[in-house]
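Handoff note, outgoing to incoming analyst
You'll be picking up this chain. Sequence as last confirmed:
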Amino acid sequence: MRLGHPLAAIVGVATGLIVLFALRIARQWQKAVILRLGKFHALRGPGLFCIVPGLDTIPYWIDLRTFTSSFAAERTLTKDSVPVDVDAVLFWRVLDPVKAALEVENYQQAIAWSSQTALRDAIGDTDLAKMLVGRQEIDTKLQQMIEHRTAAWGIQVLSVEIRDVKIPEALQNAMSMQAQAERERQARLILGDSELQVANKFKEASRSYAENPVALHLRAMNILLEGMRQNSTVVIVPSSAVETMGLGAMSGLTSLAKEFARPQAGQGPHSEENKTSPK
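Most recent structure output, in case you need it:
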């Protein structure tokens, strides 16, 4: 009986160790790839699961969450031979844990290299102007290229976003000068169109004045009046212009009106005396 107690204790300790090594816990976002005698056996998780110690191994714990990987292409020539530095971000997740564990040695490193290679290929097939303006189109193209390469590894590419496109400083100055020249050209074209519209309006107005001289005289008088009101100055008008506008008769009528107004304005005792004095 005394020998049985140490044996039972040893059996109990061995059983406890076996159970301890057999139990595994996978987190909510994890999948455990189980190999039995070197061959794929099962995929377990999340939660509590058991393995056979000595026979089963877990070489990979696959994370099913969405990952972000930044990658770049430095001094890559565009289609029009312009060296650029491009930074981008890749959003991806593991869709098939078995393929990610068995089909590629290190799927994270493989995704990084595939993304960088796809970015260089996309830059080489795109002009600089299109790259600066149509980033969404390049993002879609990159996503398709990367997903085509990583689909065999059980990787799903969610999206690709280009963060920055850097060009040489000398080229930046040249592009700035080009943009400024283009804006000046547009401004001069707009100014020329405005002058043409004003000239057409003046042409129509001249036809109207030619058919109606009274309207031309009224317009000329209005211009003189507005000029004297705004500047408070005396405007000297040539006599020919006065005769053309018909202002000579008007000045004569004004003088005649003043002559008739003098006796009325001069009424008083002196005027009575003048009336009664003998000639």
